[in-house]
Amino acid sequence: MIKTKLTEMLEIKYPIIQAGMGPHNTTNLAAAVANAGGLGLISGIGMGYIGLTKEPLFGFTEKTPKKQMLRSIETVKNMTKESGGVFGINVPVAVEFQNVSKELIEAGLEARETDNDVARRMKVIVTSAGKPEPFVEGIKESGAYHFHVCPSPYHAKKVESYGTDVVIASGHEGGGHVAHEPVHTMVLLPEVVRAVKIPVVAAGGFSDGSTLAAALALGAVGVQMGTRFIATKESDFHQPYKDYVVNTKDVRDTILAKGLFGKIRYMKNPGAQRLWQAEQEGASETELFNLEMAGFAAIDKGDIENSGMAGGEVSGRISDIPTVKELMGRIVKEAEDIIRDRLPKLIV
Ligand SMILES: Cc1cc2nc3c(=O)[nH]c(=O)nc-3n(C[C@H](O)[C@H](O)[C@H](O)COP(=O)(O)O)c2cc1C
Question: Mind listing the domains of the chain with CATH numbers?
Answer without folding.
Answer: 5-237+321-346 (3.20.20.70)
